[in-house]
Amino acid sequence: AYAQGDLALANKAFSHTLDGDFDGVNLLLAAQVAHDLGEQKRAGELLEHASDYPPCVRAARIQQARVLLANHQPEAALATLERLEDKDANHKQVVQLKADCMARAGQWQQIQTQLPQWRKTLKADAIPLAQRAAKGKFAEIASKQGANALKQYWQELPRNKRNDKAFQAAYVEQLLEQGMHHDAQDCLVQWQSNGPDTTLMPFFKDLRMPNPAASIKLLESWIKQDSNNRQYYSLLGHVAFNAGDLSLAERALLKAIKLKEDRQDLLMLAQISERQNDDGKALAFYKQGMTQA
Questions:
Q1: 146: alpha, beta or left? (left if phi > 0; alpha if psi -120 to 50)
Q2: Environment class of residue 87 by beta-carbon count within 10 Å: exposed (0-12), middle (13-18) or buried (19+)?
Q3: Which is nearest to 140 in space by CA: 162, 111, 115, 108?
Q4: End-to-end CA distance of the chain
Q5: Chain segment 235-284, per-residue pLDDT in tens
Q6: Which of 154, 150, 133 is nearest to 142 (CA)?
Q7: pLDDT (tens digit per residue) in 36-46
Q8: Can you tell me the distance from the alpha carbon of 62 to that of 47, in angstroms, rounded to the nearest whole number?
Q9: CA 293 to chain centre
Q10: CB < 8 Å & 24+ apart, contacts of 58-63
Q11: 244 φ, ψ to 5°?
Q12: Are 57 and 51 in contact (CB under 8 A)?
């Protein structure tokens, strides 16, 4: 009945299973039905009951936390997950949910403190989490104390964190949000002087500067080393466009789409054609761009 969407019948059927021994699975499903029917108190009671069964305790706590998160109660959701024993507390879904609770509660320092022990569980997923936590912390400092305080905080971080790509990306992103494009460029160029980094490269597209000579020089050096890399041409095109150098932007973007078409690049070429008062060419690029996924 639940699978077919008949919540009333499913609710009635599950109510007849409460005295049976299903290791709590019936309670998990009954709680979901109650939740879907808007009976939040009953859903909570059923989940609490389900948590008495060892095979279901983790699933029950996860569901409880998700409901609390949906109701904008991240601290309560986190407290629910903290009730799990170590064998369940270190499960990947639980760790991810804890991190989400902390992030929504603005507990950026707590995430950074926990990350070293979470990395083994999260593996590659730890990188975006570290970046999210760092960004949250940087944003908090910038909003309360200003951009100069942010730069001072960065300089006082331990070397291993300043060398961490997730931290670097979060710092550059916050510099850009604070309008500190020259500082952001200095970081992007310095930290990629030995070669491009996939985490940092995309931020070149967000630079807004009248004379981004350092960025252009670096990107052109990458192109000399790999003349068939469309991403380098695309980055160069965006940097040049944002600096008002339409000629360089057009040349770079045309090379990029020749190697592989990209919607963002095509739409930027359309904008360039518009500024050059070539409406026919602009329309052609817009049409071409709209066909790209």
A1: left
A2: exposed
A3: 108
A4: 39
A5: 999 999 999 999 999 999 999 999 999 999 999 999 999 999 999 999 99
A6: 150
A7: 999 999 999 99
A8: 10
A9: 21
A10: 58/84, 58/88, 58/91, 58/94, 59/28, 60/24, 60/27, 60/28, 60/31, 61/88, 61/94, 62/93, 62/94, 62/97, 63/28, 63/31, 63/32
A11: 90, 10
A12: yes
Cβ atoms 125, 95 nearer than 8 A = no
Contact indicator for 105, 75 with CB cutoff of 8 Å: yes
User: How far apart are alpha carbons 268 and 254 in whole angstroms?
Assistant: 10
The single residue listed with the structure tokens 């071409």 is: 288
User: Residue type for 211, please?
Assistant: N
Q: What is the DSSP letter of 18?
A: T
pLDDT by residue (tens digit) across 3-24?
888 999 999 999 999 888 899 9
Report how far apart, in Å, the C-alpha atoms of 199 and of each of 135, 169, 220, 229 are.
Answer: 14, 7, 19, 17
Maximum separation of any 2 CA atoms in the chain, in Å: 77
Helix 126-145, helix 92-104: angle, nearest 10: 10
| Tokens describing residue 255 | 């090379």
Q: Which residues contact 151 (CB under 8 A, 6 or more apart)?
A: 183
